[in-house]
Amino acid sequence: MHCLLKHRPIRFPTTIVNRQFSELFGTANKPSTSKNLVYEVEDFENEVIKQPRVIVVFYATWCTPSMKFLPIVTGAVKSANNIRLAKIDIDKHKEVTEKYKILATPTIFALNYGEVESPHVIGYRSQEEVLNNIMEWYEKLL
């Protein structure tokens, strides 16, 4: 399930979630020292593009599959370590949406210093699928 963007208006803010990914980094039995961090991105260039290893998910508030997918992708990175999740509302971020050629929502992929480092995964996915994609992408980026 996904929503095509063909004739939708497009706007701009982004939220980044920084979480711990214990299984990937072998810290599952160690206590976490990092805090979960959620904040609105004011400067996409500095807060996302100039950062290593950022998972981005493009969504639309009017798209039911997007709204069902956001808690799943957030849950998939819930125990993450050094993983940032940028949630990008396509109606609020026209320039970014166009730059990355987003044609449907939800769309998720990995960026490393602004360069696309994974295939675009389009449409609703299970938490297990999303977690597997993220783990695979991060292993390649380490």
Automatic annotation (TrEMBL):
PROSITE patterns: THIOREDOXIN_2 (PS51352). GO terms for biological process: cell redox homeostasis. SUPFAM superfamilies: Thioredoxin-like (SSF52833). CDD domains: TRX_family (cd02947). It comes from the Eukaryota. Residues 19-142 form the Thioredoxin domain. InterPro entries: Thioredoxin-like_sf, Thioredoxin_domain. It holds the Pfam family Thioredoxin. PANTHER family: THIOREDOXIN, MITOCHONDRIAL. Belongs to the thioredoxin family. This is Thioredoxin. It comes from Acrasis kona.
